[in-house]
Amino acid sequence: MEKWPGVIRAFKEFMPVSEESEVVTLEEGNTPLIHVPELAGELGLKLELYLKFDGANPTGSFKDRGMTLAVTKAREEGSQAIICASTGNTSAAAAAYGARAGLKSIVLVPAGNIALGKLAQALIHGAEVIPIEGNFDRALELVREICSRYPVTLVNSLNPYRIEGQKSAAFEICHQLGRPPEILAIPVGNAGNITAYWQGFQEYKTAGRIDSLPEMWGFEAAGAAAITRDRVIAEPETVASAIRIGNPVSWEKAVEAARQSAGLIEEVSDSEILEAYRELASLTGIFAEPASAASLAGVKKMTREKSLPEDSRVVCVLTGHGLKDPNTAFQEILQPEPVEASLERVVERAGI
Ligand code: AN7
After folding, report:
1. How large is the C-alpha radius of gyration of the chain?
2. HSE (side-chain half, CA atoms, 13 Å) at 149
3. Helix, strand or coil, per DSSP, at residue 299
4. Closest ligand 1 atom to Cα of 86
5. Does the chain have fewer CB atoms within 10 Å around its N or its C terminus?
6. Which residue of 89, 138, 277 sits with most ligand 1 atoms within 8 Å of its CB, as the best mutation to test the pocket?
7. Does the beta carbon of 192 sit less than 6 angstroms from any atom of ligand 1?
8. Which atom belonging to ligand 1 lies closest to the Cα atom of 245?
9. What distance lies between CA 316 and its chain's CA centroid?
10. Test site for ligand 1: of 193, 280, 318, 323, most ligand atoms within 8 A of the Cβ
């Protein structure tokens, strides 16, 4: 088997790079597409269910797919520093790829609202981490303002290279399934990823690699459901801190993806997200972060409302690793009390 070269080289005909480009990569991509008939059965979902586990990327989220290209281009263009606003995963990826490229990275995060693992990543990779007394949407406003005045490169998904890199996940799914799925279910925060997937599927169709397109099903958290409710949410709230975003940048593009694909943008409640989060972990062995579970929660919700043909292939995108956010896991599942270190007590606790 050949060595996987990362998403830029793996899909270079579809990427805006030349042979001379010096690619900054952590060999991201090529993540598992896991068939989970037992989960579908347990949940009473009569369809062919798959999980695209992008938590298996080098920094533990799908952000690596776009960051490899954004940072490659930033370095190629002679930039000395990259900057982003982030609910956590973008900051972790920017910090890691910045370290790999030898660029300074600056990340603005909402103070107190970023998962522990993501903060640890940004810090250990040496980013300048600036927690702000405000939410993600405010952080992004500040970053845009800074980029208009100072020589730093924006690596939020407003940067088109981020989307170009992230579309690689759609390509991989087509190869892994042998064809596109009927439905692609995905969490929506800033709406960059749903935009990227839709672009990827369309490019593969135009290139004659596939001959159908999936319905795009995007799911927001109910407390941050700007697109679903068609209004900016000034103070978004959700347990899924990654998608705690009240004014998504790619709003119109997400609406277009849903409309053109005959799909939908819907919301799922925090309790639906947490239920799907626990089910994924306990029934499949996949630990995804809460925001990621919005895709499964959404499929459960929508299949109660509309019926699909039984052989429909549905791919739930799991965007980030559960280890990013250990605190939410502990809030959901109590830590066990220690027992006396004796055979009797341990066997008693083990229930064998
Ligand atoms: C795990 O890191 O916006 O709809 O700043 O971390 O493309 O925004 C993260 C978003 C879904 C939503 N799942 O994707 C950030 C950030 C996880 C995420 C999303 C995010 P978009």
Report:
1. 20
2. 6
3. helix
4. 5
5. N
6. 89
7. yes
8. 3
9. 11
10. 193
- CA of 346 relative to ligand 1 center, distance in Å: 42
Q: To which residue do tokens 């559960």 refer?
A: 322
pLDDT, tens only, 25-45:
999 999 999 999 999 999 999
Atom of ligand 1 nearest to the CA of 189: 4
CA-closest candidate to residue 219, choices 184, 170, 173: 184
Determine if ligand 1 sits within 6 Å of the CB of residue 189. Answer: yes
Query: Which of 157, 184, 243, 251 is the pocket-test mutation for ligand 1 (most atoms within 8 Å of CB)?
Result: 243
Which helix (DSSP H) or strand (DSSP E) does residue 7 occupy?
helix 7-10
The tokens describing 293, both together, are 């579970």
Burial class (CB in 10 A: 0-12, 13-18, 19+), 5: middle
Q: Is 319 in the pocket of ligand 1 (CB under 6 A)?
A: yes
The per-type count for the chain, helices as H runs and strands as E runs, is 15, 10
Tens-digit pLDDT profile for residues 71-123: 999 999 999 999 999 999 999 999 999 999 999 999 999 999 999 999 999 99
The pTM assigned to this predicted structure is 0.97
In order, the DSSP letters of 23-79 are ----------EEE-HHHHHHTT--SEEEEEEGGGSTTSBTHHHHHHHHHHHHHHTT-
- Single-letter residue type at 181: P
Distance CA 304, CA 216 (A): 17
Please, what is the average pLDDT of the chain? 97
